[in-house]
Amino acid sequence: MVAVTAAALGGWPWGGSAIGPLRWGGLLVTLILAIAALLAALPLAFGLALLRRGGSPGGSLAAAALIEAVRGVPLVTQLLFASFVLPLLLGGGVSKFGMALAALTLHTACLLAEVLRGALQAIPPGQMMAARALGMRPAVAYWTVIWPQARRIAAPAALGVFVGAVKDTSLVSIIGVFDVLGAAKAVVAGTDWRPYHVEVYLAVALLYFGASLALSRVARRMEGPAAS
């Protein structure tokens, strides 16, 4: 499904021009924002967690400052800053969709970094020492010994971050990004659909509920023995 959607947006197979972010809207925007933000936030969160936990004093301080700054500022403020202030600093040329995606990714990554850092701290240091004694490189030891355990420990709290990230996509409408909630508002604004506003918003609520339920199933699989 992802491959088909990406091909269609790129103009294949009918040979048309690519459909850029400026022409995206509704459910497509919500899905792309949610999926892209989660996928991009995972490696960034892992890097921030490792840097804050065991990096150099300067790197640890920089990671801690970034994480605490992002966690301490409401996402709405970050979206407004990314949409109206950053383009002035960068000289423009960046779409609101790109700015919204960057803000969502950074916000999710910083929240998830603290979850992963707590999970890493719950693993006894002796396991890394034993892996190094067996000749494993630090990266290999983290990937094969530490990460599988940290993943199961972090799964319940990470689920809350993932679900929150999916629901946070509804905030992008305040900066003019036309997501599924914005589409629902536009539909309800029409005279013909105004009597069905309850059904329209209920459909949007069921969409978010379905996404959250799917993420909860993934988190339960991460907790189980099959993830080891």
Automatic annotation (TrEMBL):
Its main location: membrane. It holds the Pfam family BPD_transp_1. The keyword Membrane applies. Residues 27-219 form the ABC transmembrane type-1 domain. Coiled coil: none annotated. It is a multi-pass membrane protein. Keywords: Cell membrane, Membrane, Transmembrane, Transmembrane helix, Transport. It is found in: Cell inner membrane; Cell membrane. The keyword Heme does not apply. The chain crosses the membrane at residues 28-51, 72-91, 97-120, 169-188, 200-219. Belongs to the binding-protein-dependent transport system permease family. HisMQ subfamily. This is Inner membrane amino-acid ABC transporter permease protein YhdY.
